[in-house]
Task: inverse folding
């Protein structure tokens, strides 16, 4: 006061403003530390070594705004000064204020717990060391009172307390991120008035006066809420349930996760915590997972990624893991903006005190800075700040260009997920075998067997696939039992690639027969393969991925191709052989049947048949000449049947033989 343009502006609830200098309200200059500690020299108060104040008499009950104005506007760093020592004499060119005080007096009594601010924007002049301590008493709009203290070496910093901390997006629709972030990240400015779910809490310099009203008139831009008669009690979540990512109620695969659903029965949004307890014996130390966010009124969906608190896939277990969900009230966030060297902080809830009254939370996993980071980086499980030392502490340059968020709240009654969450696995094995066939003339056949090797977990909705591979032109398949369509309708197969589903109880299996038609290019000795695939069961991991595919290979078979030729000649009249002949009664006709394999595979079990017409009479015996030159005879009858296969064996490619017999014209 009275140094340069130094002054104090007082704005009344009706927005009228006065200044100490302009309205001649008094000196208002604090010269030394001893004067600051003693307080104002006011009639009726016993004060020694106090300062002469600027005195403003409130005309009406309400909230008044005090603005302390520096000698000049501008930047610059003040000299580093011990908090318990005297500061350099102020100059008219100082763009800072070294000491200030606001005391409410009623009659002959001071009224502590009446002065508050929405935020601090301060500069201590340097680092290393310039340790700074803050002790304030945050009051929330829903009636919760806290004490907060911290020690740090920040240089310049901004400090405020609100109910959201850093935000996932700009304030239009942004929700609390529940993590620290870069200094340019979205946040709700404490200079703004409260709006909907965005609330900047009031920072009192003493415990709030219990005689404060619930609200009072305030200048424009200031929120008029003060001290509720009783804090708001958060409701208990209802209808808590879990569905795996693949749709199975109460079951998930590790690293697959699913969605929690619950109802917030309250009239307004509230912070939630979902705590998944995984146990050190199964998943290791610090493995419990905590999901946090803001629950709107009514139904809420919260996605879990199937990982534990250390970021690892949760280990499957035959026993369900326990889950608790909480709604909270009295949410307070303490975002420190661009502040380095935090050595300790303490938070204590002063009403609705319970075992969590001193618990604070933070999550610094997504930010990086030089210096020594806090330990742990993830405190979503909560840290007791009153008895712990170095709570959320960091050093060096860590914190520079960051918003380091710490928060606390009052947890309501937990809702237990009755059946918990089962994290399951089932080893699904597919085996494909070649059965028979496999030429351009005869389709190949395969068997596909899919088995659940687990002894405890049902593999639900296992997808079985077998596409048309190279070298084949078409597939068809059959499934006698156990197969269903994607929608769950039973199916026994059909034409086309295999794409079906099966649910397999422990140790159960299903077998499909696949028939594959070879393309024209798949000639003899072409190496062909066909692969079948089976997916993991719904909401269950598969511990052995190597057996989820199986390939059957075979070499394409050749195709036998038999040609037959037949000639006849009149032996009696010494006629020439041809496709037809004539004769007189008692003339002898000779028939020759020539057979040849012009394919690329053996003709097996060849049987040659012929019939004599009624004008003819069989004569004697006929002759079979095998491809190797050996011959044999057979009796000629009206119905001729020559077992070439029995006499000559398989007819190899290009092999040729004849069947000769005679008949007499009647």
Result:
């Amino acid at each position: 006061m009275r140094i340069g343009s130094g002054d104090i502006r007082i704005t009344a609830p009706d927005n009228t403003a006065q200044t100490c200098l302009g309205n001649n309200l008094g000196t208002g200059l604090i010269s030394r530390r001893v004067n600051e500690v003693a307080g104002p020299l006011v009639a009726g108060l016993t004060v020694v070594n106090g300062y002469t104040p600027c005195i403003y008499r409130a005309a009406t009950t309400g909230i008044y705004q005090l603005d302390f104005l520096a000698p000049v506007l501008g930047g610059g760093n003040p000299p580093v000064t011990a908090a318990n020592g005297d500061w350099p004499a102020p100059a008219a060119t100082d763009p800072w204020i070294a000491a200030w005080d606001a005391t409410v007096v009623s009659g002959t009594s001071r009224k502590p717990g009446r002065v508050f601010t929405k935020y601090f924007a301060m500069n201590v002049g340097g680092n290393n060391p310039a340790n700074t301590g803050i002790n304030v008493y945050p009051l929330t709009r829903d009636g919760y009172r806290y004490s907060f203290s911290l020690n740090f070496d920040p240089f310049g910093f901004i400090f405020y307390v609100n109910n959201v901390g850093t935000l996932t997006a700009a304030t239009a629709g942004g929700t609390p991120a529940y993590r620290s972030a870069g200094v340019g990240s979205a946040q709700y400015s404490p200079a703004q008035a409260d709006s909907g779910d965005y609330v900047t809490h009031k920072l009192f310099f003493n415990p709030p006066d219990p005689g404060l009203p619930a609200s009072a008139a305030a200048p424009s831009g200031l929120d008029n809420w003060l001290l509720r008669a009783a804090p708001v009690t958060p409701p208990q979540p209802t209808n808590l349930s879990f569905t795996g990512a693949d749709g199975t109620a109460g079951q998930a695969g590790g690293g697959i996760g699913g969605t929690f659903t619950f109802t917030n029965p309250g009239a307004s949004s509230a912070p939630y915590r979902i705590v998944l307890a995984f146990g050190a014996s199964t998943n290791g130390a610090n493995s419990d997972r905590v999901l946090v966010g803001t629950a709107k009124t009514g139904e809420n969906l919260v996605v879990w990624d199937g990982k534990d608190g250390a970021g690892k896939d949760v280990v499957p277990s035959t026993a369900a893991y326990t889950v608790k969900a909480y709604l909270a009230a009295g949410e307070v966030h303490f975002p420190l903006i661009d502040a380095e060297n935090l050595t300790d902080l303490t938070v204590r809830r002063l009403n609705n005190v319970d075992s969590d009254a001193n618990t604070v939370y933070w999550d610094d996993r997504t930010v990086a800075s030089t210096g020594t980071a806090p330990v742990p980086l993830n405190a979503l499980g909560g840290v007791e700040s009153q008895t712990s030392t170095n709570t959320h502490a960091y050093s060096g340059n860590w914190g520079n260009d960051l918003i380091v968020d710490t928060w606390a709240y009052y947890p309501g009654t937990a809702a237990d997920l009755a059946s918990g969450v089962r994290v399951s696995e089932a080893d699904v094995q597919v085996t494909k075998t070649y059965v028979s066939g496999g030429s351009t003339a005869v389709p190949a056949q395969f068997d596909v067997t899919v088995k659940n090797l687990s002894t405890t977990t049902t593999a639900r909705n296992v997808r079985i696939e077998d596409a048309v591979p190279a070298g084949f032109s078409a597939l068809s398949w059959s499934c006698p039992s156990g197969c269903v369509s994607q929608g769950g309708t039973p199916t026994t197969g059909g034409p086309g690639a295999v794409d079906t589903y099966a649910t397999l109880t422990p140790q159960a299996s299903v077998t499909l027969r696949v028939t594959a038609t070879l393309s024209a290019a798949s000639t003899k000795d072409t190496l062909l393969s066909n692969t079948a695939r089976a997916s993991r069961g719904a909401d269950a991991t598969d511990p052995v991925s190597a057996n989820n595919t199986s390939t059957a290979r075979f070499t394409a078979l050749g195709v036998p191709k038999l040609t037959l030729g037949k000639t006849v000649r009149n032996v009696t009249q010494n006629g020439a052989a041809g496709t037809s002949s004539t004769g007189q009664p008692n003339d002898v006709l000779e028939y020759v049947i020539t057979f040849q394999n012009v394919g690329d595979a053996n003709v097996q079990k060849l049987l040659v048949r012929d019939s004599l017409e009624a004008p003819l009479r069989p004569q004697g015996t006929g002759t079979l000449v095998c491809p190797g030159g050996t011959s044999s005879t057979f009796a000629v009858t009206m119905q001729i049947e020559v077992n070439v296969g029995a006499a000559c064996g398989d007819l190899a490619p290009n092999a040729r033989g004849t069947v000769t017999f005679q008949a007499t014209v009647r």
Remarks:
- The radius of gyration is 47 Å.
